[in-house]
Design brief:
about 120 residues, mainly beta, Thrombin, subunit H, 6-stranded antiparallel barrel
């Protein structure tokens, strides 16, 4: 009997952190407020209240808690998974984004401790 093992497909480490953001789905052109589940150099996992089709294009606006700075990126949905009724996790690949996740995580943690 051969065991099935999980094979990591990510090329960059992910950091679990909740950072507020808005995403705009190009199909309906409406801003949706949410939070990240985790981030990396070229990807974000975020929460939504509906599934998104693979390939959906998104504009993302991350708002930093420490100083209100807005970091903008464009990406597309790689996968969508229901985690409970009416709540989904969405994996987003960021196009031409080179997020610096460690400083973002440290800034978020520091801001959360402050408030």
């Amino acid at each position: 009997m051969q065991a099935d093992y999980f094979k990591e497909k990510r090329s960059h480490p992910r950091f679990a952190v909740n950072i507020p953001l808005n995403y705009i789905d190009f199909e309906i052109h409406k801003a949706h407020p949410t939070k990240t589940c985790d981030i990396s150099v070229d990807g974000i996992c975020l929460f939504t209240d509906k599934p998104l089709p693979n390939g959906s294009e998104l504009d993302i606006d991350i708002e930093m808690l420490d100083n209100g700075e807005h970091i903008q990126a464009r990406g597309h949905c790689m996968w969508s998974k229901m985690i409970e009724a009416g709540r989904y996790r969405i994996g987003v690949f960021l196009e031409q984004a080179r997020l610096k996740p460690i400083p973002l995580v440290l800034r978020t943690v520091k801001a959360q401790r402050k408030y």
